[in-house]
Amino acid sequence: MRFEISYDERVWAIMPEPDAAADDLWIAEQRMRFADGPFGAHVDALEGAAREALGRRRTGGITSLFFRPDAVPATGVLHVGLVDRRVDEREGALAWLPPGTTPRIDPAVATFSTAVVPRGRRVAYVSDRDDADGAPLAGLVYGLPLDGLTGYVFAEEAHSDVIGLMQTHADAIVGSLRLVA
């Protein structure tokens, strides 16, 4: 089983699988996307972010998406997948965080439902890790309890303004998820 994903191509790009030998083409597509737009002066930095993102993509049935909205010069990475286990929800918000994540303060938790997920959790947190400039990193996780499986959507840690912007677009992705064989 896996998730079928619908997404706004003006905001997201699905990263190629590592064995597809399509990295150079994908990088060129990301570069062309920005070259003639309002962020053309930053195209080298945006290309660098795309190359770095490819190094963080996941494999094994996990879909990695590159966040690169056309209205703001920001980038990030979102992963969507399923695991063959149930999360112990008695642990609260911490149960949904990626392994090794320690929040600096109590995470903000919201409950939601979709056509596939009757009671999901969206957890936004401030990490105990800082970026190179000393600013705290933030993260976003959607916990999707399903029958015998756990779905998840999580953003890699980034500046809080980027995570906030990603959330406004990630909610639509989570709402679009469908299970397929």
3D architecture notes:
With 181 residues, the chain is of the alpha+beta class. 23% of the residues lie in helices and 31% in strands. It contains three helices and nine strands. The strands form two sheets. Strands 2-3-4-8-7-6-5 form a seven-stranded antiparallel sheet, with helices on both faces. It has a two-stranded antiparallel sheet with strand order 1-9. Strand 7 (136-145) and strand 8 (150-158) form a beta hairpin. Helix 1 (23-35) runs antiparallel to helix 2. The longest helix is centred in the C-terminal third of the chain and has 17 residues, at 160-176. It starts with a strand and ends with a strand. 27% of the residues are buried. The mean pLDDT is 91.
In short:
With 181 residues, the protein is an alpha+beta fold. It has helices at residues 23-35, 43-54, 160-176; strands at residues 2-4, 12-14, 63-67, 76-83, 108-112, 120-130, 136-145, 150-158, 178-180.
Secondary-structure-based class equals: alpha+beta
Rg, Cα atoms, Å:
16 Å
Sketch the major β-sheet.
7 strands, antiparallel
Strands in their spatial order, largest beta sheet: 2-3-4-8-7-6-5
N-to-C order of helices and strands? EEHHEEEEEEHE
How large is the share of residues in beta strands? Answer: 25-35%
Between the first and last Cα atoms, what is the distance in angstroms? 4 Å
Number of helices: 3
Helix content: 10-25%
User: How many strands in all?
Assistant: 9
The average pLDDT value, as a whole number, equals 91
Bulk shape: globular
- Low-pLDDT ranges: none
